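Why do we care about 3D structure at all? Because function follows from shape, and shape follows, mostly, from sequence. That is the central idea of this module. The next example makes it concrete: a single protein chain, its amino acid sequence, and then its structure expressed as tokens.
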Amino acid sequence: MAGLDYLILLRDYNGSKTDKAMSKKQLFTIEFPVRCSPGILYEFLSTPAGLQEWFADKVDEWDGEFSFSWGGGVPDKAQVIEKEQDKFIKYQWLHSEKNEYFEFRIEKTEISNQTVLIIKDFAEKNEIKDQSQLWEYQVKELFHRLGA
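And the structure:
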């Protein structure tokens, strides 16, 4: 894939005063048009087998808690905090602040009816560009696996 079109939206996270003192991370959003049905895309975003295809080297799930491993290292764990079949799934790293999460949302555009993958994540302000590039790389891998 030569170039991947995406849009990055930044928004300051306006949590409570306590939350602001604890976390300086900002919510950012990236959108990727994708040629795939929402149902197939959702499987790649919400199941261990699907996530292992593009997101991490090894993915296990037990009772809503996912374990992600990269390069044989110590697993990083996240829990599913909200989901709706074929629409979105929201994860929270167990080591992160309680107001931070990462989310995969699937929407259809009104005019062209194209499927759009929307990723929301948190990062330090000076790390948003790097984090966005990492997501772009991972989404390229996802699209390769989808044949999109």
